[in-house]
Amino acid sequence: MKAIQIHSTGGPEALQLVDLPIPRPEPGQVLIRIEATGVNFIEVYFRKGVYKASFPMIPGSEAAGTVEELGPGVNGFKDGDAVVSTSVIGSYAEYALVPAAQLVKVPEGLSLECAAAVMLQGMTAHYLVFSTYPLKKGETALVHAGAGGVGLLLTQMAVRLGARVITTVSTKAKAELSREAGASDVILYTERDFEAEVKRLTGGKGVDVVYDSVGKTTFDGSLNCLHPRGMMALFGASSGPVPPFDPSLLNSKGSLYLTRPTLWHYIATRAELEWRAGDVLGWAAKGELKIRTEHTYPLANAAQAQIDLEERKTAGKILLVP
Ligand code: NDP
């Protein structure tokens, strides 16, 4: 099979197209034939060595495809089932293994491409607005990178819950997309001080929650956008990791809450995975959640996909197609 492999940390050139044997499923695993692979920022962190990995590795954890072979002891799936997962063991490939406990069937009416495009970022948006800081009607959220993969989905879900969403984006074109997703106010944070704008837009009150995936360049300003006892949900580091931080700042800025959540802890049980995946895939199948995937690359062009993601050229989802 064709796959993308990394032998050591480095730039995009570290992503090499190789031929490898198709893996065989072990007990509890399912072999899937991949139709679409979701590209996520975390793969950039692994490639650069920000997150540790053992090499050689096939990057990627999100894909949709069809069941090819069941490992011993696997029930509930059969050959040819349309399936999707965010726990694929190396999804930048034509075939991959998935723990059956982390595999979900794609509902009728949803294409495999759409399933791969919405699963990881959709469940991330879901846990952030339903569990990390459960948003209530009438509350106000600040969402950074509002036209990104997570950003567009998070905005739609927050608006669905009756919240007001203020977003930040880097370009006018992205601002348009963010407004279409339901943002009431969009701030061009590359041109304006987003902290001052948020204060102005909330009449000096500040927001109830900040969902911050940008990290280094937005963290300090984000804390200043919160009203007392507000919640800072720092869930990414697209601009780089936040430097060491003095917790007493949470006190002086208004008894704030800070959390650094990750998806895996919010889908750790089968019940939680089925709840989030069921909502996200179900809403997408019914057209209630709009998925934007204008960036589709052949598997061999994985390096270009990551370059475009890192250079902020993309909006919405990026897919690789084997
Ligand atoms: P995005 O589509 O949001 O891409 C990243 C965006 O971040 C860019 O498009 C850009 O938007 C913005 N950005 C701001 N500064 C920079 C910078 N210096 N370099 C690059 N981008 C920058 O990616 P995803 O939707 O895939 O992921 C968003 C973030 O969420 C990532 O940090 C990812 O790691 C994290 N994440 C965390 C999860 C979790 O459970 N903790 C799960 C999934 C994702 P703009 O041009 O508008 O500034």
CATH superfamily of the largest domain: Medium-chain alcohol dehydrogenases, catalytic domain
What's the total helix number? 9
The helix/strand class is alpha/beta
Please give the largest β-sheet.
7 strands, mixed
Shape: globular
Mean pLDDT score: 97
- C-alpha Rg (nearest Å): 20 Å
Descriptive account of the structure:
The protein contains 9 helices and 15 strands. It is of the alpha/beta class and 322 residues long. The chain folds into 2 domains: 2-119 and 291-321, Quinone Oxidoreductase, Chain A, domain 1, CATH 3.90.180; 136-260, Rossmann fold, CATH 3.40.50. The strands form 3 sheets. Strands 3, 4, 5, 6, 7, 14 and 15 form a 7-stranded mixed beta sheet that branches. A 6-stranded parallel beta sheet has the order 10-9-8-11-12-13, sandwiched between helices. Strands 1-2 form a two-stranded antiparallel sheet. Strand 11 (207-212), helix 6 and strand 12 (226-234) form a beta-alpha-beta unit. The longest helix is centred in the middle third of the chain and has 21 residues, at 112-132. It is globular and about 60 Å long. The relative contact order is 0.15. It binds NADPH dihydro-nicotinamide-adenine-dinucleotide phosphate. NADPH dihydro-nicotinamide-adenine-dinucleotide phosphate binds next to helix 2, helix 3 and helix 9.
In short:
By secondary structure, the protein is of the alpha/beta class.
Present the secondary structure layout:
Blueprint: E1 2-5, E2 16-19, E3 29-39, H1 42-48, E4 62-70, E5 82-85, E6 95-99, E7 104-105, H2 112-132, E8 140-143, H3 149-160, E9 164-169, H4 172-180, E10 185-188, H5 194-201, E11 207-212, H6 219-224, E12 226-234, H7 248-252, E13 257-259, H8 270-285, E14 295-298, H9 302-310, E15 318-321
Helix pairs in contact: 2-3, 2-8
Bound molecules: NADPH dihydro-nicotinamide-adenine-dinucleotide phosphate.
Residues 40-42, 120-121, 124, 145, 147-151, 169-170, 174, 213-214, 217, 235-239, 261-263, 309-310, 312, 314 line the site of NADPH dihydro-nicotinamide-adenine-dinucleotide phosphate.
